[in-house]
Design brief:
Helices cover 58% and strands 7% of the residues. By secondary structure, the protein is mainly α. Strand 1 and strand 2 form a beta hairpin. It is elongated, with a radius of gyration of 15 Å. Strands 1-2 form a two-stranded antiparallel sheet. The chain contains four helices and two strands, in the order ββαααα.
Length: 92
């Protein structure tokens, strides 16, 4: 189990404790659920999350590109994963 997640809207890593605290604050104030960093509305579906990730990849965000590489690596597509890892490393 991981103690952090990557926010699909801005590619920032957020610890589960901070994410929980933000959700409690939003619930108590009856606010819309948003990212603790960029305040972008939290997608409610996996499709929305994937759309956000691909926007970050299109914007040449090295963290988002690395995450896509990790997904390909986990699926066994090592050549594609290497391409994504290389591009992410070049971007910083």
């Amino acid at each position: 189990e991981t103690s952090m997640i990557m926010m699909s809207c801005c590619s920032k890593m957020v610890c589960n404790g901070c994410l929980h605290a933000n959700k409690v604050r939003e619930r108590e104030a009856r606010l819309q659920q948003t990212c603790p960093f960029c305040r972008h509305p939290t997608p409610l579906t996996l499709e929305g999350t994937n759309k956000n990730k691909m926007k970050r990849v299109a914007a040449n965000d090295p963290v988002a590109i690395r995450e896509i590489g990790k997904k390909h690596y986990q699926k066994g597509d090592y050549d594609t994963a290497f391409e994504y890892f290389t591009k992410a490393a070049e971007l910083g």
